[in-house]
Design goal:
This protein has helices at residues 5-21, 59-103, and strands at residues 26-29, 35-38, 47-50. It has 114 residues and is mainly α. Among the domains are: 23-53, no CATH class; 56-101.
Length: 114
């Protein structure tokens, strides 16, 4: 069984720079009061305002995220190692069973009716 964490983490690392480069969000409010956030103003909006976003990342949050990624990698590596060990153990048992079966003489019973 493969663990999907690594592809998810990899995709997050690719998305973060893309999100940082995204255009400034615009808040649009329509006549019914529905609020929509988008990179472009919504048609027929009563008001549209640019929402200021601080693109700087908090260094503490970045460091904590890196630590969390490292912990997840360690867990995934440990799980992969355990899986490989279990698979090797299973193969050993199958090979031992096959050797036992091969070493046993084949017994053929012939029954004669008199």
């Amino acid at each position: 069984m493969r663990y999907p964490r690594r592809p998810v983490l990899a995709s997050l690392f690719f998305l973060l720079p893309a999100m940082a480069l995204a255009e400034t969000p615009i808040k649009s409010v329509d006549e019914a009061g529905n609020v929509t956030y988008s990179d472009k103003p919504v048609e027929n909006a009563v008001s549209s305002t640019v929402v200021p976003v601080d693109p700087a990342l908090d260094p503490e949050r970045v460091e904590e995220a890196k630590k969390q990624v490292d912990r997840i990698k360690e867990q995934a590596d440990a799980a992969e190692k355990a899986r490989k060990e279990a698979e090797a153990e299973r193969r050993k048992k199958e090979e031992a069973a096959a050797q036992r079966k091969a070493s046993q003489p084949e017994v053929i019973i012939i029954q004669e009716d008199h």
